[in-house]
Amino acid sequence: MVALKAKSQAALRNVSAKRAVAPVSTRSVVPLKERRLNFGDKWDYAPAPEDSKNYVIAPRHELFINGKFVAPHSGKHFDTINPATEDKITEIALGDAEDVDIAVKAARRAYEKVWSKMPGRERGKYLYRIARIIQEKSRELAVLETMDGGKPIKETRDVDLPIVAAHFFYHAGWADKLQYAFPGRTPRPLGVAGQIIPWNFPLLMAAWKIAPALTCGNTVVIKPSKTTSLTLLRLAQIFQEAELPEGVVNVVTGTGETGTAIVKHPDVNKIAFTGSTEIGKQLAQMIVGTDKRITLELGGKAANIVFEDAPIDQAIEGIIAGIYFNMGHVCCAGSRLLVQESIYPKVVKKLRDRIQTLRIGNPLDKNTDIGAINNKPQLEKIRELVQSGVDEGAEVVQTSCTLPARGYWYPPTFLTGVTASHRVAQEEIFGPVLSVMTFRTPEEAVERANNTPYGLSAGVWTDKGSKIFKIVNQLRAGVVWANTYNKFDPTSPFGGYKESGFGREGGVQGLAAYCRLD
Amino acid sequence: MNRLDVKKTYKLYIGGKFPRSESGRYLPAKSPAGEHLDNFAHASRKDFRDAVVAARSAFGGWSKATAYNRGQILYRAAEMLQNRAAELVAEIARSTNVSAAKARREVMLAIDRLVHFAGWTDKYQQVFGSVNPVASSHFNFTTPEPTGVVVVLAPDEPSLLALVSLVAPVVLSGNTAIVVASEKYPLPAATFAEILATSDLPGGVVNILTGKRAELAPHIAAHMDVNAMVDGAGDAGLGAKLQAGVATNLKRCAKHAVADWFSAKVEDPYWILDTVEFKTAWHPIGV
Question: Is the pLDDT of residue A34 over 70?
């Protein structure tokens, strides 16, 4: 049993904004002549870390199959680390095709014998139980999520976990009401759902996948991302505590190959994947010629459009929330800022000042705004893409702060002078990096916003209501936020247009992904 | 010498508190065999009017609570009822003419029905609301909202299940309710009030009166601050008296003549629509 090492936590104090060290070689500040706000180091924050010592993490975590934790047949495990310290947290079982087969068989058995036959009302009561236990253990799960994924505790505690519980609660209520979601039809479950989820919102994505699948009567084999297995395995313990019948949810941890084994398994009826567009296309290819159903929630390159009649200070907060929430590891992040020319200097100045106030450091500290980058390859990808922006002529604006010596860190960054052809305007960076561009007319804003293969989300900022609805109607994106950004609710469907995938998660529409309509 | 039991005084439930009737009146509750069990409060016109004030003042907070919050609170009521099921089963068995087994079935179904309706708080808008494709350049949508203070008349039996089945669809949307409990078997309703009082449900959202329906009916019909009436009592004469209230201040009036309260048909989301108003908003589209 290992508790988190207090020593490494102490080394992760929040850093003052003034102690300036260039975090990357590409750093260059836009020379703006006007007076700058001085945030100084006179108001340093005292550390306020969330207590993590009460939570015991077992040294090894096994697969969760048929209601029990079992060793992978290969006997192999891999390390999962805290990206903020690079310290090992625990070992996670490496599941392979054989383990996946056992899990699918367990899910099939549970589907045939128990879950698909159970009245909706009783299924719903299991989901309510799960929601209530999640609420009880919410703080513990938030701390573990932060340790395993690098997300700031402020976000895991106040965003991820409340939505996780709400998602189970909302879907619990649908279990005995599905006939009202599909008027004139009789909804039936599909069978065994194979689900693959990413590392950016580990528990939240698990909730988005598992809750609708179960409420509609399906059973599940789910694989978390290699870097973030811990909290899903805790959720498996909650399933045990809720006495969920064995085999209804099975967790097979492992690598991309484990996920491939799930997708290719002949007895899986439905695939649900959240991740990159590249992998999404590969999965779609794997099921060609089968009757498997698939929903894909993939990448994005959202335009956040700020008109000159926008409430500027509110918009600045929305831009910050849009791109720096969860270190920008958000598929719907507002990563392309489109600013109307007349307000461009004002917006850039305010943005530059605002990012200086973001606090980077120990994700377990309650004051931290920006935590650690989830994994090393992602950090390298962010660095590489920002470098490409510099090489193509963009200018980099970053916070001046010292980053902790250990762990994976990237400071809040935005790029000005970006043109539509730059890689940073086209490719998903999936980090705290915003590309700033301008437009003159609403028509141009819409055209530039839609000029991407993606279509997951978008933002519109203006105080003129009629303009909001006009622009919303013209944007080819699955979720559009008006005068707000990155809002999520279980009653509200989420999903993309175009190469951001298809299918919706949440709301009435999200149920369709897990039902056959007779 | 045997220990002497302490007996409970059955009282009204108004605004989260348990007052006796201001009139000082009481009625005796008898077992099916005719033995005297306990006395209970005989609610007066003034008690009813107090309950309307309590319900009206609770309406603001309850109707503005998020649907998610209301759902959790109704689910919490189910949790509390489950936890105190034995008490309710015993109460129904001793004070009404059903067996312990049937009383148990009734309580279990009441719990499940609360859970069922808890699930509707954040779904009925999605099922019954709409976005309307008007031909002009407007974004136009229709959403249901709670109507206000609702009086619910419960039938004599099943004393607990019918009350729960009638009240849940009223309060889940954000209405507040005054329930006139089973006249013949009022004790389970009075005990259920004690469960609601410990369930996070804000005081005044559900108020429970025991007494005589026929005596209260004209006052209900005449009250100018009651928005709707849901009549599940199944008494035609009484129904006509209530209907007079429609002409008073256009109270909404719904009647539910239910042959079998144990039937799944009672879990009817259309009952929610009896006590909501539909609001349509228009918003222009254009740059």
Answer: no
- Nearest CB among A166, A176, A466 relative to B286 is that of A466
Give which of A99, A112, A96, A97 is closest to A68, Cα–Cα.
Answer: A99
Out of B112, B118, B283, closest to residue A173 by CB: B118
Subunit contact B119:A172, Cβ cutoff 8 A? yes
B43-60 per-residue burial string, b: 16 or more CB within 10 A, e: under 16:
bbbebbebbbebbbebbe
Quick check: A491 contacting B, CB < 8 Å? yes
Pairwise CB contact (< 8 Å): B68 & A169? yes
The answer to whether A331 is a known catalytic residue is yes
ipTM (interface pTM)? 0.96
In this model, does residue A118 exceed pLDDT 80?
Answer: yes
Give the number of domains in chain B. Answer: 1
What CATH number is associated with residue B57?
Answer: 3.40.605.10
Would you say residue B208 lies in a domain?
yes
Is there a domain that residue B25 lies in? no
Tens digit of pLDDT for each residue in A327-343?
999 999 999 999 999 99
Chain-chain contact of A121 with B269 (C-beta, under 8 angstroms): no
What is the reported pLDDT for A45? 79
Residue B10 lies in a domain: no
Smallest CA–CA distance from A509 into chain B, residue: B126
Cis ω before B158 (30° cut-off from 0): yes
User: Does A467 touch chain B if contact means CB atoms closer than 8 Å?
Assistant: yes
Interface touch B119/A465, C-beta < 8 Å:
no
Taking CB atoms and an 8 Å limit, are B115 and A470 in contact across chains?
no
Mean of pLDDT values over A216-235: 98
pLDDT in tens, B141-179: 999 999 999 999 999 999 999 999 999 999 999 999 999
Can you give the residue range of the structural domain that contains B70? Answer: 38-284
Position B204 in a domain? yes
A212 touches chain B (CB under 8 A): no
User: Which tokens in the block code for residue B253?
Assistant: 């009036």
Helix axes A120-136, A230-241, angle to 10 degrees: 120
Predicted local confidence at residue A17, as pLDDT: 41
Average pLDDT of span A423-449: 98
For chain A, list the domains and their CATH numbers: 7-34+300-482 (3.40.309.10), 60-298+496-517 (3.40.605.10)
Give Cα A201 distance to the centre of its chain. Answer: 4
DSSP label at residue B207:
E
Residue of A nearest to B69 (CA): A166
pLDDT at A20: 43
A356-360, B44-48, B187-191, B220-224: segment of lowest average pLDDT? A356-360
Task: Indicate the pLDDT class of residue A46, thresholds 50, 70 and 90.
Answer: confident
Out of A297, A428, A499, A505, the active site residue is: A297
Residue B130 in tokens: 């709409």
A193: β partners: A220, A270
- Give the one of A469, A507, A508 whose C-beta lies nearest to B283's C-beta: A469
What number of other Cβ atoms are within 10 A of residue A400's Cβ?
17
